[in-house]
Amino acid sequence: METERKLRVPYATSGQVDETLELLKRMTPKRIDSSFIVDNRLATASNAFRLLDFIRFFGISDEEGNPCNEIINKLKLIGDERSKVLIDLIKKAYSDLFEGIDLTIARKEDIINFFISHYKLNNGIAKSAAALFLHLCEKYGIEISDELKKKTHLSSLTQGSRKKEKKQKEEKRIIIETPAVRDDNEISIIVKAKGVNYPFYAKNKEEFEDIVKRKLPLAIEGVRNSLKLMELEEQDNEK
């Protein structure tokens, strides 16, 4: 127990931890160090220590980076058996917390204060450590109070995905303004998207119908192709 208490309490994001556990289902590394974290794109070099703290705190490797194959092999199980393994690891790693707090009636403040007082963490890190702990409890079915369930951890990965999704939706939005009448009594149909603007003007009903039937479908297809090209460029930039 004294050795475990010397280990730093993890405060990596839940998304990073989930990805790490999923990776260990598929592979058995010979060494778990910063290079392993960075090479597998689990975190940047400057943030790799946060995942290493988690891995060591859970006994998945020792402080020198030597993996515990017995635990890693159990992490390759599926279904309820794997969940039981994770529950055991969580309860062992956070044994002091489980002994000191009744999670079925606890509030989030109780968890944060425990990390501050017991592990000597500052307020910000204690909140992140508590968020990860509660995420793991809820994900693997450890009973916690309804009060603790109200504020689950939103990982940086999830936040990033939502921001990216929102940005993509904004970029892919196609606006068709029709019909609008200009001051000179012309009818305008304008197809807009990010970086694209196709204005069409008709002086009478016949020209308007011609735009709708012939030109408007081509303009919309042009926008679609532009957006596809943008997606390909984004994918190339991410590689």
Can you give keywords for this protein?
disordered N terminus; 12 helices; 2 domains; elongated; 239 residues; mainly alpha
Overview of this protein structure:
This protein is 61% helix and 9% strand. It is elongated, with a radius of gyration of 27 Å. Strand 2 and strand 3 (196-202) form a beta hairpin. It is mostly helical and 239 residues long. Helix 8 (108-119) crosses helix 9 (123-139).
What's the SSE blueprint?
Blueprint: H1 2-6, H2 14-26, H3 34-39, H4 48-57, H5 69-74, H6 79-93, H7 95-100, H8 108-119, H9 123-139, H10 146-149, H11 156-172, E1 175-181, E2 187-193, E3 196-202, H12 205-238
Antiparallel strand pairs: 1-2, 2-3
Helix pairs in contact: 8-9
Strand content: 5-15%
| Mean pLDDT across all amino acids | 82
Low-confidence regions: 1-5, 152-157, 174-183
In which order are the strands of the major sheet placed?
1-2-3
Query: What is the number of beta strands?
Result: 3
Profile the largest sheet: 3 strands, antiparallel
Global Rg: 27 Å
Shape: elongated
- Note the gap between the termini: 44 Å
